[in-house]
Automatic annotation (TrEMBL):
PANTHER family on file: PROTEIN YHFA
InterPro entries, A to Z: KH_dom-like_a/b, OsmC/Ohr_fam, OsmC/Ohrsf
Protein name, as recorded: OsmC family peroxiredoxin
Length: 140
């Protein structure tokens, strides 16, 4: 299976990229770097892809396991190298669950399954970065 997207220059430093979902997104850089700041930054999008991919896995498992979770968020903190080409060499992925009746063991299992087995974007990140996984349970 292959994926193909088209990314079209909009002028100055902005691009529009399509997606198989039918939604388009704009990519741009900050005004101080010569752009107009009208879109997403490419490297930050990589972090959103990582969190989104893993988050979808965990959300699917939350549904399958019928777990009671009021709130779920993923914080992704990445270190960018100093030298060009700049890339993420260390990435911390924090899973935050909030609720009254959190089943911590099953939620940790959901995170582990995503991290170790299901998330393809996580596997891609492993090729160039050291990953640190943390899970936080906020019982109300």
């Amino acid at each position: 299976m292959t994926n193909q997207i088209t990314t079209k220059w909009l002028g100055n430093m902005a691009f529009e990229s399509n997606n198989p979902s039918g939604h388009n997104l704009t990519i741009d850089i900050a005004p101080e770097d010569g752009g107009d700041g009208t879109g997403y930054r490419p490297k930050a999008l990589m972090l959103s892809s990582l969190a989104g991919c893993s988050g979808l896995d965990v959300a699917s498992l939350i549904k399958k396991m019928k777990l009671d979770v009021e709130d779920f968020k993923i914080e992704t903190i990445a270190n960018l190298t100093d030298e060009h080409p700049k890339y993420y060499d260390k990435v911390s992925i924090e899973y935050h669950f909030t609720g009254k009746n959190l089943d911590e063991k099953k939620l940790q299992r959901a995170v582990d399954l995503s991290v170790e087995k299901y998330c393809g974007v996580m596997e891609m990140f492993r090729k160039f970065a050291t990953l640190e996984i943390k899970t936080f349970f906020n019982n109300k």
